[in-house]
Fold this protein.
Amino acid sequence: MTMSLPFRSRTIPQCSACIRSYPFAAFDDLALANTGIGQQVRRSSKKKAVVATTVPVRLLKGVKSFGRKGAIVPVSFGRMRNEWFPRRIAEYMTLPEQRALRLKNTTFERDFQYGAEEDLPIPTPGSAQSLASTAGTPTPAQPFIRRAPELERLSPERSMQLIEIFVPQRLDFYRQPIPAEPEPPAPKRPAPSIGTGIAAELFVARAQAEEASKPVKPAAAQAIYGSVSTQNVLDAVKAALATNDESARVGLVEEDVRFIAGPEVVGVEEAGRVVKHVGDFTVEIRVRGGEEGVKRHVRVNAQEV
């Protein structure tokens, strides 16, 4: 019984050594195909998406270890959002500017050497000896102090304009009045008996004329519980200025507010700082460096219980 060998579709070799190895090559190919060793295995590769952690910004001020004013440097999103942009240290770059820089293949890099030379002390023989003597002593750690963002100050002229615009012409305050005690009536003198006739009528007419010619005593100002001070007026002025972003930056202190006292003004006490009576008063608001102040009316009303 003859066995047919599975010859492959290629030219049969002519040398004796190749003829002996040719039949077994077919079985080797079948073994590899059955075991699956020769099969190609595909593996799915997932590449992580590259997430940008910095944003290119333009410096408005020179920053140590970043660069000088006008330089374009990369900075983290958090630092730019929370510190640099509110303090006007840097500004965001627009999308057209970013596209133009990408077309030019411009790289954004920090200048770590910028500003480092300013803090380095100049070595002297005395300083070298002091550094050698204090080399072994540990330096105490300084506590971290978070500084508030710096805002541009307004000029006195601009501050006075904002006060004139946003502070109303009259500021009203309400206080509980102190009830006034009634004055006892003046005792009446008994009229002398002058009898009747023309002389009696002339005497009565003269007495009435003298009573009418007496000056009328002005009513006393109604006192209040507590007082209205310049601090109360300052709080009302600041509340009015807080309605606008620019006017909210006007800096005022209690010494910048005072009541205008005069001979005809009743109720102003303690050198124009306190009002303790019901009535209308005038207050002057000044800004340090300003020439003239802004005047406003203050009305103290009796609060109804």
